[in-house]
Design a protein that fits this description.
single chain; alpha+beta; 4-stranded antiparallel β-sheet; 4-stranded mixed β-sheet; 8 strands
Length: 204
């Protein structure tokens, strides 16, 4: 008589499991809420000019109602001033808002929406607008290099145009050489005079 309660208990557990499985299958997709898929400008991007519109795309179209303002995008500059106009447009899974012309620097985007399953989702990211002087500073350096090269070649061209003068000979011994020459000449004249006198004596 004891096995009967065990069989009935197993049947009851199987019936409860059969009822819970469909409910778990229906609830499992709702657990995965919508998420942020992409943004324009992209997260941590450095752009040359400030964008006119900031937009973000979710994995699924959000639940939106213009009267309830369920979707919010707030853009602030580096000083904390709000530059977004406060109006969010929804096109499918993409939310966007217009921003006023700003100055170069860091911008922060705060967003909030209601996912397709009714759960609120939110997040934030930042991007940077590059200063024009930063982009322009790299160009003069490139254009200045030819002039720098020309200036470095200028002294070399001058040196090539004016060859170094040859060293002057040393004239310290010039007087001595002149004296020796005169001595040799005087000795030659003396020998010539002596020979002529000797020849004249022999003839007489």
């Amino acid at each position: 008589m004891k096995p009967r309660p065990r069989i009935s208990t197993r049947l009851r557990l199987a019936a409860v499991a059969a009822l819970l499985l469909p409910a778990a299958a229906v609830a499992s997709p709702a657990v995965a809420h919508d998420a942020l898929s992409s943004t324009v400008p992209t997260r941590d991007a450095v752009v040359a000019t400030a964008p006119e519109t900031v937009s973000l795309t979710l994995t699924e179209p959000p639940t939106d109602s213009a009267s309830l303002n369920l979707s919010v995008i707030t853009v602030t500059d580096g000083a904390g001033n709000t530059v977004s106009d406060g109006t969010v447009s929804v096109d499918g899974a993409t939310l966007s808002t217009k921003i006023a012309p700003g100055t170069p620097g860091s911008y922060k985007v705060l967003w909030r929406a209601v996912s397709s399953d009714g759960h609120p989702i939110e997040g934030n990211y930042a991007f940077t607008v590059q200063a024009p002087a930063t982009a322009a500073s790299s160009q003069p350096s490139a254009s200045a290099s030819p002039s720098a090269a020309a200036s470095s070649l200028a002294p070399q061209n001058t040196a090539n145009a004016m060859p170094p003068t040859a060293p002057r000979p040393n004239d310290d011994n010039a007087p001595l050489a002149v004296g020796i020459a005169f001595g040799i000449l005087a000795a030659a004249l003396a020998v010539t005079w002596w020979l002529r006198r000797r020849n004249a004596g022999q003839r007489s």
